[in-house]
Amino acid sequence: MNRYTVLIASRATGVVRRLTIPLWPTAAILLGLASLPVLMGLGARWSASAEIDSLRESNAVLGMENESYRAATGELASQISALQAAVSELGERSRLDPATVKAIDNLPAVVKSRAMGGAPARSMEGAVASLAAPAPENTFGVLRDLLGMLETRLEHVRTGVEQREALGAATPSIWPVAGWLSSAYGSRRDPFTGAPDFHAGLDIAADKGEAVKATANGTVESAGYSGSYGNLVVLSHGFGMTTRYGHLARMTVRAGQQIRRGDVIGYVGSTGRSTSSHLHYEVWWNNRLINPLRLLSSRR
Q1: How far from 232 is each of 86, 210, 219, 229, 283, CA to CA, in Å?
Q2: What does the pLDDT read at residue 211?
Q3: How far apart are CA 13 and CA 223, in angstroms?
Q4: Cα–Cα distance, 44 to 39 (Å, whole number)
Q5: Helices 23-93, 139-170: inter-axial angle, 10-degree rounding
Q6: Chain centroid to CA 260: how far?
Q7: How does pLDDT run across 58-110, given as a tens digit for each residue?
Q8: pTM for this structure?
Q9: Torsion-angle region of residue 125: left (phi > 0), alpha (psi -120 to 50) or beta?
Q10: Computed over its alpha carbons, how large is the radius of gyration of the chain?
Q11: What are phi and psi of 240, to 5 degrees?
């Protein structure tokens, strides 16, 4: 085996030391020392490559999650916009004119209660509490639940507004004819006999031929001659309410016809049991009389 001798001399003492080194083991050691930085570099490169692959995978997952969040955010924004539009619409629709509001307030309580129908919306307390939970991944699910509950509650409110609108349209709230009150609702003396009498409605004196108007939306229940009423039009308005218009000189509607508030249904006359030209006007609810003055808030 080839060997090399290394001489190490001390200048201070002059002592010479000899170090014999075998060739191949020394070469192997030197080669190992030389290759160590390369091996360390390869190891670092492999570790960095693995880390990069991991980061790429995480980035792909985050990209998918971000895309999902963007889609969910867009959906939520669309739903919120729709809710805002619906709320604005309901706000506009819920504004009844003051005369109608006053008339509704004077209706029997059981009639008004029909405009408050619909099942109550379920509570949102649980969903609101969930927003405080430390689980961000559930945030969109909780928000969707909240929006769903808001939509349910909004639908409940919309139903109430629609029913209130229907009640407002069905409530007799305007004067049926331009004239003056000649006989009120309640006790009075019979104009023919002078005996005590109960007057079932209002007598509104007006010139013959004056237009008589429907006081609320409804359907013509009947239109024809009816004994002491003379020519009589009866309108059905829904919610159990009907109105009667008597002593007409002429009628302009027929049974089954749809009528809106303010439509002309006939003209003032003095047919039937009447002493002069006037309109006899009655309001009924579930076959019970209501004083029309409680509901007449304006003249139109």
Answers
A1: 43, 15, 14, 6, 13
A2: 97
A3: 146
A4: 9
A5: 10
A6: 27
A7: 777 777 766 766 666 666 667 666 666 666 666 555 566 777 777 777 777 77
A8: 0.61
A9: alpha
A10: 47
A11: 80, 5
Provide the token pair at 163.
């029913």
Q: What is the DSSP pairing of strand 288-290 with strand 278-285? A: antiparallel
Q: How many CA within 13 A on the CB side of residue 283?
A: 29
Query: What's the Cα-to-Cα distance from 164 to each of 65, 84, 134, 157, 233, rounded to whole Å?
Result: 46, 21, 43, 10, 26
Tokens for 245, please give them: 């218009």
Identify which of 181, 188, 265 has the alpha carbon closest to the alpha carbon of residue 221.
265
Q: Look-up: residue for tokens 């980061």? A: 55
CA distance 206 to 150: 53
- The candidate with the shortest Cα–Cα distance to 204, out of 268, 252, 300, 289, is 268
Q: How far apart are CA 15 and CA 10, in angstroms?
A: 5
The torsion region of residue 44 among left (phi > 0), alpha (psi -120 to 50) and beta comes to alpha
Tell me which amino acid residue 253 is. Answer: V
Residues with Cβ within 8 Å of residue 144, at least 6 apart in sequence:
72, 76
Whether 242 has a pLDDT exceeding 70, the answer reads yes
- At residue 105, the pLDDT reads 77
